[in-house]
């Protein structure tokens, strides 16, 4: 259906211009809900249709499930004209698939809340005449004999067929069934599609909360807001929805952008819970004026809706604007409204009367007599059928204003109830002579259902249990005893005169301390008398009231949760729990510096590791000599390098090849880790040294390529981890062996599962448990002791600890992955061997050239001169060859990298793994290509769509899925279009960066996400879903929070965008010098080979191997000192508080100095120095102030002279102390100080602007982003 803007029509165009009659545009052309779904499936087959956090289905998969279940229903005899009862667990995908299957089969669904009593369920299904009932499983149970007819059960429903039957509360105590046809339902769905967000309609990428019971007609709005527009429905368990404040975290975690709810629930969410929501629809009850001011914002459009079940969910709506009158608005397209006075005639504008509804949305009662009464003709307007709502409204031409009700029907929590139904249940209590119910409000505004009874005996637990057996949980009232009920002159109960607050039957005790404070909060929420042993739920406490209470208690006790109320429901127990939580205080402890002797032991271990590396060098040299001799005859050098070929081959297989390195790494790693258990150990002690040595050996052996392959599972088992054969592990397991990977769990690339961190001078070691079906997303950090429960999900880039819970969805609903086959194992193993020899293959032309030139060179002087002359061409040949090989392989893999959903065991998953691996290798091996004029060309060669004047640094992205528009900026370590693994499926999608958009350091732009023109995603931030981000907006953190944009005026815009040619030439000249670190590395290799062979000639193989370790250490020291020298030559004066345009020599020279560190110092030495005094010494040479006893696990100090680390500081792995930031096209610098006794957690990112950490645990709820 085409979308058009909806403009309601009002009285000016009618025959009765002075009367309160509201007409609207005509309804859309008639169709069914199945027609709507089919159109959406056809248009959006690959987009997500439903996702509850554990199970997700695209529209194509959803349709397949629907067709399968509909066929099962038809086989059971269910079809057109039948009614099917549904009673399934909330929050499950099965529930919604079953609803759609019933509709597709041509039947109507009759929902009952799973929490409702069995008696009510049977009453509903008997009244409706359902033939079968669908329950969890899904299980199909006959309820009433199927009526056999000659009509085909395979027919599609028509617009006149019933779609659903919702039961509302009845005034006689008996629920009333309301049947809505497909035609009315589709008209409602299409009308809302016209009404909401006409400028940026709901679309794929939007995520719609499904938090309401399907027995509540507003749930239909949730479902079809998603399925009409190609968005994704996100079911939430009812237990979570009832938690109130805790649902806010769910909205953020699930990136919810569309919400339909009741005002009572929305009022309990913290404002940050709605930061990603762009459409909030309120309905079901009157909306308080004060709530509008808090909810309405520029980023979120808020609508107030109104409509009885008898008129298909919503009949009219109005936008809510802070400071303006709250209206229920004007009619939807196809609906007609009138305000009628007591005489049955329309009232004049501005007057009050009963709201009457007609038009496309009219439903019908199953009870024919009630239908005749409720939908009697309105003769004054010649409406053949009209719904009399019983609601009083004021006829305002700009939109109806709700006044109240003129009968005994009320709404509680969005659920319409008849007080007569409650009265009838109260009269069934033993000994009750009279009863009445009413809605009252507490001091906090919480609506409370109160039941007043007249009898001698006080209310007891038995009475409350009786009511729970006969009423839905939400309709069980708080009981108050009265001597008599107040009556009107007519003899009817005067509900308005029922006492509130309730009369006290005795003297209430005077509570003191925290008990007294807690009792006062109870009074604010419940307004009832309180004793020490009073149970919160026995005096009117509901889930909504519990959420209100939590909001109050968290002002004094932030750790208090809804769970605490259920676990400690009495006043005394709850007060004790509050005391427990508030008495916990963080204590400052004295942090001891790292012991001096630790550094000497580390130095010895480093020499041993480098000696082992020297041994591998001799193996490679021996193989090269043997191969060259076979092709070219005896060589004039390395005459004493004589090792039998079979020994060389065995050593090569064990110590050089990837499978061999995996085995040796695991074997050596198990030795120091033997006996290490979860616990706390001294920093720099023996356990810490053993852990450090094991991790450095892993770094030395370079086995990162195995992540994501079957070899990674085998390596984890060798370390001692418990690993299921279906686990998909794309991050190295902890060397401690203290991890378990459950069936079908997923760990995505770059996740940190090390299982340890430094808390000051304490090493905390713990287990990491990833349960069945759990998912750890890319770049997440799991601290020791973390347990990811079954089917739970850790979001990308966040740091978590403790227990990560799922959303309570049934295990039977999950898609369990299968283990890899032999073919897959062979494919990955051969690819690993290829990746391992790529650098050697790329070096063949260079080695051949050197061999040819130096073959007959005997004089040492001539050999040195020739080596120096060949250094640059040989380096260039190797670089070009390596880049060409990478380009060819990545281009080949791109053939299998089209956006879509695939098996995680097929060729597409292999291509995604290979591309990620090669792009990571390119970022390390070809570091000089990045953050340069060459970067856009390099990315285009790899297959990316890159616009003009794009600035890209060390990004990680599948090139074929990256689109970057003109002038966009991608900072260091940005992750773009990362593939997602969910069970046995792989999801691929495109990331698009808009014109002059900025993505900060370590930012993430997920698949199918884009950043519009001029937008900004800050450091360590994630791009929000496409439906939320707007042109020119700024976002920070994980989950993304919208922040105000501050635009600084640039001295010369050309220095940021569109620079003159002279600046491009100057920059190119500076960047051409990035080849120098590679040339130096080539010379170091040549020098080491020559020196090792010289020692071999004079001293023999054993001494040469030992000397080789010393020579490798010396080469590493030289590389580090050259990086230091380059820094001081290029960047002698870095001042705090300065700003520099991107097109300035400061930025170019800074990047050149960084190239010396990353391409020279890091591969030769720095990667092995983490946590040692040697790293601290080098950082001091770079200008950093490093105190005594510092343990530092990172070298990433971009402007080291602006960093100060106090005595005893611990800086954990993957941290960046970044003193330069680029929040705009300007580079800014500022000091970062970490004073004594402080520490950072893994993955933190320190920014500029004089932030000083003193004795603190520097940690963020969003990975690293805190100050």
UniProtKB/TrEMBL annotation:
Residues passing through the membrane, by range: 597-623, 643-663, 832-855, 867-890, 1075-1095, 1101-1123
- State the superkingdom: Eukaryota
- Give the InterPro entries listed for this entry: AA_adenyl_dom, ACP-like_sf, AMP-bd_C_sf, AMP-binding_CS, AMP-dep_synth/lig_dom, ANL_N_sf, PKS_PP-bd, PP-bd_ACP
Look up keyword Membrane and say if it applies.
yes
The UniProt entry's GO biological process terms, in alphabetical order, are: amino acid activation for nonribosomal peptide biosynthetic process; secondary metabolite biosynthetic process
Q: Which UniProt keywords apply?
A: Ligase, Membrane, Phosphopantetheine, Phosphoprotein, Transmembrane, Transmembrane helix
| GO CC terms, sorted | cytoplasm
Tagged with keyword Protease: no
Q: Known SMART domains for this protein?
A: PKS_PP (SM00823)
Q: Which family does it belong to?
A: Belongs to the NRP synthetase family.
> What is the protein's name according to its record?
Carrier domain-containing protein
Species = Aspergillus caelatus
């Amino acid at each position: 259906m085409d979308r058009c803007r909806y403009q309601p029509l009002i009285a000016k165009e009618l025959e009765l211009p002075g009367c309160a009659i509201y007409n609207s545009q005509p309804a859309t052309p008639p169709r069914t809900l199945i027609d709507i779904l089919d159109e959406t499936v056809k248009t959006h087959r690959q987009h997500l249709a439903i996702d509850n956090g554990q199970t997700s289905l695209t529209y194509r998969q959803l349709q397949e499930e629907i067709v399968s279940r509909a066929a099962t229903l038809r086989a059971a005899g269910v079809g057109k004209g039948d009614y099917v009862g549904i009673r399934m667990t909330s929050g499950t995908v099965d529930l919604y698939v079953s609803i759609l299957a019933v509709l597709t089969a041509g039947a109507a669904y009759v929902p009952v809340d799973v929490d409702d009593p069995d008696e009510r369920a049977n009453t509903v299904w008997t009244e409706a005449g359902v033939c079968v009932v669908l329950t969890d499983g899904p299980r199909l149970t006959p309820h009433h004999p199927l009526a056999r007819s000659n009509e085909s059960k395979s027919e599609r429903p028509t617009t006149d067929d019933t779609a659903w039957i919702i039961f509302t509360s009845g005034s006689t105590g008996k629920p009333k069934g309301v049947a809505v046809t497909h035609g009315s339902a589709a008209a409602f769905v299409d009308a809302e599609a016209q009404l909401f967000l006409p400028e940026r309609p709901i679309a794929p990428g939007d995520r719609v909360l499904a938090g309401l019971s399907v027995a509540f007609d507003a749930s239909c709005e949730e479902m079809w807001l998603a399925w009409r527009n190609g968005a994704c429905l996100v079911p939430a368990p009812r237990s979570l929805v009832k938690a109130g404040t805790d649902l806010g975290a769910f909205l953020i975690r699930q990136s919810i952008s569309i919400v339909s709810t009741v005002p009572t629930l929305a009022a309990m969410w913290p404002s940050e819970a709605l930061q990603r929501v762009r459409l909030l629809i309120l309905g079901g009850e009157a909306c308080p004026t004060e709530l509008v001011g808090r909810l309405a914002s520029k980023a979120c459009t808020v609508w107030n809706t109104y409509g009885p079940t008898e008129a298909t969910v919503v009949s009219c709506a109005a936008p809510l604007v802070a400071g303006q009158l709250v209206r229920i608005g004007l009619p939807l397209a196809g609906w007609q409204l009138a305000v009628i006075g007591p005489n049955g005639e329309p009232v004049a504008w501005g007057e009050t009367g009963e709201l009457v509804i007609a038009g496309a949305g009219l439903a019908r009662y199953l009870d024919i007599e009630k239908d005749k009464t409720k939908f009697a003709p309105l003769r004054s307007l010649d409406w053949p059928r009209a719904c009399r709502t019983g609601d009083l409204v004021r006829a305002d031409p700009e939109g109806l204003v709700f006044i109240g009700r003129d009968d005994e029907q009320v709404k509680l929590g969005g659920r319409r109830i008849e007080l007569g139904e409650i009265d009838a249940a109260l009269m069934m209590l033993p000994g009750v002579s009279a009863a009445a119910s009413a809605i009252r409000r507490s001091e906090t505004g919480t609506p409370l259902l109160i039941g007043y009874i007249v009898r001698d005996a006080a209310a007891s637990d038995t009475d409350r249990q009786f009511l729970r057996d006969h009423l839905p949980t939400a309709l069980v009232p708080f009981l108050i005893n009265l001597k008599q009920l107040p009556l009107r002159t007519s003899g009817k109960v005067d509900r308005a005169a029922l006492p509130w607050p309730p009369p006290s039957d005795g003297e209430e005790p005077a509570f003191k301390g925290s008990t007294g404070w807690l009792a006062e909060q109870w009074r604010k929420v419940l307004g009832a008398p309180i004793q020490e042993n009073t149970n919160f739920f026995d005096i009117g406490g509901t889930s909504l009231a519990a959420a209100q209470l939590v909001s109050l208690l968290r002002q004094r006790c932030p750790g208090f949760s809804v769970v605490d109320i259920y676990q400690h429901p009495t006043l005394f127990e709850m007060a004790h729990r509050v005391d427990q939580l508030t008495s916990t205080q963080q204590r400052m402890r004295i942090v001891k510096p790292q012991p001096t002797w630790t550094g000497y032991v580390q130095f010895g271990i480093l020499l041993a590791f480098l000696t082992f590396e020297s041994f591998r060098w001799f193996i490679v040299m021996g193989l090269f000599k043997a191969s060259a001799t076979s092709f070219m005859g005896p060589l004039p050098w390395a005459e004493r390098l004589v090792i039998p070929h079979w020994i060389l081959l065995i050593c090569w297989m064990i110590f050089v090849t990837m499978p061999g390195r995996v085995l040796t790494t695991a074997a050596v790693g198990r030795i120091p880790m033997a006996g290490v258990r979860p616990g706390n150990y001294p920093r720099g002690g023996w356990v810490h040294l053993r852990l450090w040595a094991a991790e450095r050996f892993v770094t030395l052996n370079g086995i990162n390529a195995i992540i994501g392959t079957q070899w990674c599972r085998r390596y984890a088992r060798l370390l001692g981890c418990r690993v299921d054969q279906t686990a998909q592990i794309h991050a190295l397991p902890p060397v401690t062996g203290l991890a378990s990977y459950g069936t079908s769990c997923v760990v995505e690339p770059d996740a940190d599962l090390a299982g340890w961190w430094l808390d000051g001078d304490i090493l905390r070691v713990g287990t990491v448990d990833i349960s069945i079906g759990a998912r750890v997303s890319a770049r997440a950090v799991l601290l020791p002791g973390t347990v990811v429960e079954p089917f739970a999900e850790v979001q990308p880039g966040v740091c978590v600890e403790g227990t990560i819970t799922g959303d309570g969805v049934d295990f039977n609903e999950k898609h369990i992955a299968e283990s890899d086959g032999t073919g897959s194992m062979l494919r990955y193993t051969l690819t690993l061997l290829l990746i391992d020899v790529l650098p050697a293959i790329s070096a063949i032309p260079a080695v051949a050239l050197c061999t040819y030139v130096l073959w007959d060179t005997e004089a040492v002087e001539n050999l040195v001169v020739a080596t120096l002359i060949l250094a640059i061409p040989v380096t260039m040949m190797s670089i070009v060859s390596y880049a060409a090989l990478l380009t060819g392989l990545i281009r080949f893999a791109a053939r299998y990298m089209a956006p879509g959903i695939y098996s995680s065991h097929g060729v597409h998953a292999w291509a995604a793994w290979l591309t990620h691996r090669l792009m990571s290798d390119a970022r390390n091996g070809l570091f000089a290509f990045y953050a340069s004029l060459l970067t856009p060309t390099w990315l285009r060669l790899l297959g990316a769509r890159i616009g003009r004047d794009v600035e890209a640094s060390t990004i990680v992205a599948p090139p074929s899925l990256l689109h970057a528009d003109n002038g966009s900026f991608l900072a260091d370590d940005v992750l773009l279009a990362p593939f997602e693994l969910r069970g046995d499926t792989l999801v691929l999608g495109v990331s698009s960066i808009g014109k002059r958009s900025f993505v900060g350091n370590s930012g993430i732009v997920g698949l199918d996400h884009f950043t519009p023109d001029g937008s900004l995603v800050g450091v360590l931030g994630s791009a929000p879903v496409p439906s939320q981000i707007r042109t020119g907006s700024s976002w920070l953190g994980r989950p993304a929070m919208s922040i105000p944009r501050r635009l600084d005026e640039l001295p010369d815009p050309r220095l940021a965008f569109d620079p003159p040619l002279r600046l491009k030439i100057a920059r190119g000249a500076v960047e051409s010098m990035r080849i120098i670190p590679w040339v130096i590395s080539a010379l170091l290799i040549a020098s080491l080979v020559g020196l090792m062979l010289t020692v071999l000639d004079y001293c023999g193989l054993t001494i040469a191997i030992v000397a080789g370790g010393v020579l490798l250490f010396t080469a590493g020291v030289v590389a580090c000192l050259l990086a230091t020298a380059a820094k001081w030559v290029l960047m002698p004066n870095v001042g705090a508080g300065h700003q520099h345009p991107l097109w300035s020599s400061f930025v170019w020279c800074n990047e050149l100095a960084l190239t010396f560190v990353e391409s020279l110092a890091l591969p030769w030495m720095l990667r092995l120095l983490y946590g040692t005094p040697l790293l601290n010494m080098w950082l001091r040479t770079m200008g950093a102030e490093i105190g005594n006893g510092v343990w530092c696990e990172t070298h990433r100090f971009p402007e080291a002279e602006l960093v100060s680390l106090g005595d005893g500081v611990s800086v954990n792995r993957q941290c960046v102390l970044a003193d330069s930031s680029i929040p705009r096209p300007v580079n800014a610098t500022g000091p970062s100080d970490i004073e004594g006794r402080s520490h950072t957690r893994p993955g933190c990112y320190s920014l500029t602007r004089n932030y000083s950490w003193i004795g603190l645990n520097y940690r963020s709820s969003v990975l690293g982003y805190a100050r």
